[in-house]
Design brief:
The structure holds 2 protein chains of 2 kinds. By secondary structure, chain A is an all-alpha fold. Chain A has 19 helices and no strands. The longest helix of chain A is centred in the first third of the chain and has 38 residues. The two termini of chain A are about 15 Å apart. The chains are: A mainly alpha, B alpha/beta.
Chain lengths: ~475, ~400
């Protein structure tokens, strides 16, 4: 069941009405049933898998707390984490592992025929597993266990965040259950507003840009270097609007039941460096990686080289979490290298004694944002390309061909201008600057009270416009949310 | 200082409620706004039905006969036409059957002007809508020859009658209320249909999308004027870049049929059994599509159009792909429906008349097979009393119409 489908349009209000009509003690079970219906509408048999995984974690994680010695606590933790990771590995990485084994065998001239298995990746399993690991590690660190199975099951399967997050923390989520016993107009107003905004981001922006990215990344030879820069920017905005649209709908849906789930984005393309970018992009994942991978590896409380190793490993594994493919691993490694280079850059600046006034200047900030955006976009090429070979070809064109084309712009033919239908291709030259301006404007407005709490007529006007746009532009063939595949 | 709204009246401050109320008001009032009327003939792409219906819209309405069917009729007729006229025929603009007109004239006298309402992939449900749209647009043929084959009733690639591109386009041109129950059977399809009918913006979404597209084109043309040095990409290039974009669009440059030579054509037999094996997988909609055939019969009776039902020739290589006994039962069903409703029925699937050399593939006739088919058809029509009478009358009406038109024309 997709958020932008007719099924969800019927499902959400039905659950909403039943939830608020039900007695308080029945609300968690009701949401739980709704969440399993939501999940099983895709593949009923995988409902059992999620139930099994949830039950296993619910029963085994308290053993960590109950264990008498640090050694046995560590053993129980390892068992729970390994169980979750093995499940994820079996469903998500088996093909990747076979491919690697095949490539290695080929290297040593050993004949290898991989077994034929047809395992379908359960939706959202990466998110489930990360939430379970977080629970186990937090319990290991001394936080309380969840006593109620329905509460824990709902934490794991809560339908708004089930498929693509945001990755929740149980200490934030579980205390909310049963607290808000009366429906408030604020829940409806804010929730619906977020849902409408999310749908518009998806339908009106991401889906349109998806056509461009699909064409560009699938047919590199048809496009010039400059075209590919435009297409890469288009993908950068597509993935942002797709995922942040999804997150808005998830947050809005959760809010309708009075629950708050974490934000995932904070104007990421206004980041002034890569470290800042990861504080603004997929925040629930980056904080998870920090708390449950980077810090356990040693974080920055060790030597510089070890710190860099930890950074690199964390980001590379974070990349691999997105998908069982080499290009995701390389994308993660690229992010790790950028973070290391940024740390080195800061060290050099310090050694050179560059004045803080220069670093705080508006020009330096603007240039930093511009460069960070370009670096992030190069990363998106690795992320979006079907494989590393295609990514390499695109990057070659971006850096070797595009500068030449830029200096001979008269003779350069931008292929996007030759495509009149769909109109999104030539319109890129207007839409991309408009999106950049929108990003800057929202960044500027973000702490203005007028923007945070506009007058009622403005709110109504905006919501009405969003509603009409969604109804008009919602298409039966809208692509899935990008993060559904992870 | 702003006074907080008392809790009892908090709902008055809810933007969601206000938005919903205004949205409902807009939906109720906009359908009556004369300034917001859209051209229903417009569509985001030009598929077979777009070309057909726009041709019908332009033409004068003096066709006294019509042929209808799927690609089996299209290929047979277009090959015959190209050879008969000795020139390339473009399927997007040539919706005539001049060779058939000649045969009919020779056999029944008078004058014939046949409109070819056939389109590739036409299911019986599509055929019903095509005929209905034709009749509503001021065209009234005296005789309609409808050629059918099993695929027109059982195509597995069509899960619901509303899935076809023909249906999607024609539902804009004619009301489908009477077939909505039969067409939209799944609960979500029904809800979607209800929304389309009752929510203004749902029903006109496509029109607004096209309007937005046109506005964008205009803005772009002003901001980024197209330069002479930027020719649009060719169709082949576009298909490489966006293979799934508007797949049902029919391009004039891809719809040309050249005259053919018998020897060349006969050496080009193509085996498409794989495709039909897929199409015949689940004959789930068989009974439903047969009800559309019955609707066509009823519509013809109501509008006093003489229908002739023809079972199109196909080779055993194709019929054997159907479940065992299906083809025989299908033939019997056609016969019994035709008999029950007094509709002349011709079964052209006779291996003695048409053999493999007359076909492009196991289902589509080539130009020479098409010629044989038409000859056999006209012979069959002359042997049937009802058809003969109807065609003779149609020929006379065609002649009379022409004479009137001739007199009405000013002479120099």
């Amino acid at each position: 069941m997709l958020f932008n489908s007719l099924q969800y349009l019927l499902f959400l209000p039905t659950v909403f009405i039943l939830f608020w009509l039900a007695p308080v003690r029945l609300r968690v079970p009701l949401l739980l049933v709704a969440s399993y219906i939501f999940y099983m509408s895709w593949r009923p048999e995988y409902g059992l898998l999620i139930f099994g995984l949830t039950l296993g974690n619910f029963l085994l994680t308290p053993m960590i707390a109950k264990a008498s010695s640090p050694k046995s606590r560590r053993l129980w933790l390892s068992l729970v984490v390994a169980g979750n990771l093995i499940t994820l590995g079996v469903f998500k990485y088996y093909l990747f592992a076979f491919d690697l084994a095949k490539a290695t065998a080929h290297l040593f001239k050993i004949s290898w025929s991989e077994p034929t298995l047809s395992i379908i990746l359960p939706l959202g399993i990466s998110f489930f597993v990360f939430e379970f690991i977080h629970y186990a590690v937090d319990v290991y660190r001394g936080k309380p266990t969840v006593k109620s199975l329905p509460d824990f099951m709902l934490f794991a399967s809560f339908f708004p965040t089930q498929i693509a997050g945001p990755i929740k923390r149980y200490m934030d989520f579980i205390p909310q259950l049963g607290v808000n016993s009366t429906l408030k107009w604020d829940y409806i107003d804010e929730g619906v507003q977020l849902i409408l905004l999310g749908l518009v981001k998806k339908v009106l922006i991401a889906d349109q840009l998806a056509t461009v990215a699909q064409a560009g990344f699938g047919n590199v030879h048809n496009f010039s270097g400059l075209d590919l820069w435009l297409i890469t920017y288009a993908f950068a905005f597509q993935i942002f609007y797709d995922f942040s649209g999804y997150t808005d709908i998830a947050r809005g849906s959760a809010l309708l039941f009075g629950y708050k789930v974490p934000i995932n984005f904070n104007l990421p393309y206004l980041a002034a460096n890569v470290s800042d970018f990861w504080h603004r992009w997929h925040i629930s994942l980056s904080t998870w990686l920090r708390d449950y991978l980077y810090i356990p590896l040693g974080g920055s409380r060790c030597g510089r080289l070890f710190n860099y190793k930890n950074l690199f490993l964390t980001m590379a594994l974070g990349g691999l979490w997105h998908g069982a493919s080499l290009h995701f691993l390389v994308w993660g490694a690229y992010q790790g290298i950028l973070l290391i280079l940024h740390k080195e850059y800061l060290r050099v600046l310090e050694l050179l004694g560059i004045s803080k006034r220069v670093l705080a200047s508006r020009l330096y900030h603007a240039v930093s944002i511009f460069i960070t955006f370009q670096l992030v976009c190069v990363g998106w090429v690795l992320f979006r390309a079907d494989d590393l070979r295609i990514a390499t070809r695109i990057i070659q064109k971006l850096f070797l061909r595009a500068p030449v084309e830029l200096f001979h712009l008269g003779s350069t033919k931008l292929t996007v201008l030759h495509i009149s239908d769909p109109i999104i291709f030539p319109a890129l030259l207007l839409i991309l600057p408009a999106l950049v301006i929108a990003h800057l404007t929202v960044g500027w407005l973000n702490n203005k009270s007028y923007y945070l709490c506009p007058p009622l007529p403005v709110k109504i006007g905006c919501m009405l416009a969003l509603l009409c746009l969604i109804v008009i532009f919602s298409s039966d063939s809208s692509p899935k949310f990008i993060y559904f595949q992870f | 200082m702003q006074t907080p709204t008392p809790t009892a009246f908090r709902w008055l401050q809810s933007p969601v409620l206000w938005t919903a109320a205004i949205f409902i008001l807009l939906n109720a009032s906009l359908p009556h706004c004369a300034a917001l009327q859209f051209d229903s003939y417009k569509f985001p792409y030009r598929g077979w039905s777009w070309w057909l219906m726009n041709d019908l819209k332009r033409s004068s309405g003096n066709s006294n006969t019509a042929i209808m069917g799927s690609s089996l009729i299209v290929t047979a007729n277009s090959g015959v036409e190209a050879n008969y006229l000795g020139q390339t025929v473009n399927l997007t603009s040539h919706h005539k059957a001049t060779y058939l007109d000649r045969l009919l004239k020779e056999k029944f006298g008078g004058r014939f002007n046949t409109f070819n309402l056939a389109a590739p992939g036409l299911m019986a449900s599509d055929a019903y809508l095509s005929l209905k749209t034709m009749l509503e647009s001021g065209h009234h043929p005296d005789v309609l020859i409808y050629g059918v084959a099993p695929r027109d009733f059982v195509d597995s690639s069509v899960k619901c009658p509303a899935d076809t591109d023909v249906f999607k386009y024609l539902r804009r041109l004619t009301k489908i209320d009477e077939i909505a129950d039969a067409t939209f059977r799944a609960p979500l399809e029904r809800i979607d249909w209800w929304l389309q009918r009752n929510i203004y913006f749902c029903g006109t979404a496509l029109d607004y999308q096209m309007l937005a597209g046109e506005l964008c084109q205009q803005v772009l043309a002003k901001v980024l004027p197209p330069r002479a040095t930027q020719p649009p990409l060719s169709l082949a290039e576009m298909e490489t870049i966006l293979p799934k974009f508007k797949p049902a669009a029919t391009h004039p440059e891809r719809s040309r049929i050249e005259p053919t030579v018998a020897e060349t054509v006969r050496n080009q037999f193509f085996d498409n059994r794989g495709e039909y094996l897929e199409r015949y997988q689940w004959p789930n909609n068989y009974e439903l599509e047969l009800t559309f055939l019955e609707r066509i019969i009823l519509l013809c009776k109501e509008k006093q159009v003489q229908l002739v039902l023809v079972n199109m020739p196909i080779l055993p290589a194709n019929t054997t792909l159907l479940p065992k006994g299906f083809y025989r039962s299908y033939q019997n069903r056609l016969k019994s429906i035709a008999k029950r409703d007094n509709v002349p029925f011709m079964d052209s699937c006779d291996p003695l008349v048409l053999e493999q050399k007359d076909f492009h593939d196991p289902v589509h006739l080539n130009a020479f097979g098409g010629q044989k088919f038409y000859s056999a058809l006209v012979d069959g029509l002359s042997n049937d009393v009802v058809s003969r009478k109807a065609l003779a009358a149609a020929g006379q009406r065609g002649q009379a119409t022409r004479e009137i038109a001739g007199k009405a024309q000013p002479t120099n």
